[in-house]
Design a protein that fits this description.
With 254 residues, the protein is an alpha/beta fold. It has helices at residues 28-36, 77-81, 101-111, 127-141, 154-163, 183-189, 203-211, 224-232, and strands at residues 13-16, 41-48, 54-56, 114-119, 147-151, 171-175, 193-197, 215-219, 237-240. The chain is built from 8 helices and 9 strands. Helix 1 (28-36) runs parallel beside helix 3 (101-111), helix 3 packs parallel to helix 4 (127-141) and helix 4 packs across helix 5 (154-163). The two termini are 20 Å apart.
């Protein structure tokens, strides 16, 4: 690697959107559940409301994970806070509210957890604006050893790198399938890691990535037995909706 990166001790298992198999995804409740289950890191999504407030949310709309309707880009914070984002998952979570980035960072700091924060850029939204708002807050709130920022959006990642160098901000290149010419993209970003769909990863590509010195993370791994070959290929971490599934088939030591 051309630039130093923080000494990050990535866990073998990372809770996808919090412990999303057992609590409503991307909520404070899901992160608390992940912590209670023994998870050290979570993967979360962040994007902006219409008024510019960064919130922890995956979809472009609120229908799937709340009692409301409409696009996130049209909501202000007061309106978003009125949504029930827990009852869709179960009565035990009724009254859960959408978490702002600040809410979530306070909780992560309190629990001393690490996070892979995805800059989620929906259609007609600005990746540059999202990075400009979110990255400084992440760097202020969390130590660099507990943070990786990833995104599918090239502009968001390039702007994130412009804000902070590789010694301060670990960047993960997020891709559904690792492209043949993946390395120039990583070198341009001074990337720390590559994050890819575990079902699309090949042993050859995994070997190339590891030989070049990058960390390799795979999503969304919910079948521990089927995932066994990926550990053998050198995968560093599996992002799972339910890391507790791996208890019976423990991944090998890193």
């Amino acid at each position: 690697m051309s630039s130093p990166h923080p000494a990050i001790a990535l866990p073998r298992l990372i809770a996808h959107r919090g412990l999303s198999a057992h609590a409503p995804e991307n909520t404070l409740a899901a992160v608390r559940a992940a912590h209670e289950a023994g998870c050290q890191w979570v993967e979360l999504d962040v994007q902006l409301l219409g008024d510019g407030t960064p919130v922890i949310w995956h979809d472009a709309s609120v229908q799937r994970c709340s009692d409301g309707k409409g696009r996130l880009a049209t909501l202000d914070l007061a309106t978003a806070r009125r949504l029930d984002v827990g009852s869709w998952f179960g009565d035990a979570f009724r009254g859960e509210r959408m978490a702002t980035l600040n809410d979530m960072l306070d909780l992560l700091d309190h629990l001393t957890m690490g996070v892979n924060m995805e800059l989620k850029v929906e259609r007609n939204r600005s990746g540059t604006e999202l990075a400009e708002v979110v990255v400084p807050r992440l760097l202020e709130a969390l130590s660099t050893e507990r943070l990786v920022v990833s995104s599918f959006d090239p502009l968001a990642l390039r702007h994130a790198r412009a804000i902070a160098d590789a010694s301060l901000l670990p960047i993960g290149l997020l891709t559904e399938s690792v492209p043949q010419k993946w390395q120039p993209h990583c070198e341009a970003l001074e990337a720390f890691s590559i994050h890819t769909d575990w079902t699309r990863l090949t042993a050859r590509r995994a070997g190339e990535i590891k030989a070049a010195g990058y960390r390799l993370l795979c999503y969304t791994a919910n079948d521990p037995a089927a995932f066994t070959t990926r550990w053998a290929w050198g995968v560093d971490s599996a992002i799972s909706d339910d890391p507790t599934l791996f208890a019976g088939i423990s991944p090998p030591p890193a």
